[in-house]
């Protein structure tokens, strides 16, 4: 799903860095974009930077987001937009946009991966709150 957003100079990735899986994947993107000299910004959920982009912490934790060309994308379209900018992964963006694969990858992300990662995020939060006390309101 795409939302209009004020035009920004660079592509911006908004991700849940408290998720070990998400963090590891985005760290690899960050290394690739740095190696290729690409001007891509990375906003971590733990920094609270998602608010500057109109997202709540909960919304940012539920899905992967990319702002590109003034549009906020989430889910597989967000991954494809990022991959398209990365020379080593352009082929993957092309692949997941093919009609049949697009439906499959979006279905897997929307109905399996994103919900599973979000549930893991909520469990991590509950464990952390049980150790350190309730978190500040979001």
From TrEMBL:
Pfam families: DCC1-like (PF04134). One of its GO terms (molecular function) is protein-disulfide reductase activity. InterPro entries: DCC1-like (IPR007263). This is Predicted thiol-disulfide oxidoreductase YuxK, DCC family.
């Amino acid at each position: 799903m795409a939302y209009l957003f004020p035009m920004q100079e660079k592509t911006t990735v908004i991700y849940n860095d408290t998720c070990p899986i998400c963090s590891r994947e985005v760290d690899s993107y960050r290394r690739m974009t740095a190696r290729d000299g690409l001007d891509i910004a990375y906003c971590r959920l733990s920094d609270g930077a998602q608010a500057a982009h109109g997202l709540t912490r909960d919304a940012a934790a539920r899905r992967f987001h990319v702002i590109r060309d003034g549009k906020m994308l989430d889910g597989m379209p967000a991954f494809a937009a990022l991959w398209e900018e990365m020379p080593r992964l352009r082929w993957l963006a092309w692949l997941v946009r093919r009609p049949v694969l697009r439906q499959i990858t979006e279905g897997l992300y929307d109905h399996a991966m994103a919900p599973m990662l979000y549930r893991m995020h909520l469990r991590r939060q509950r464990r952390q709150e049980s150790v350190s006390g309730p978190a500040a309101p979001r």
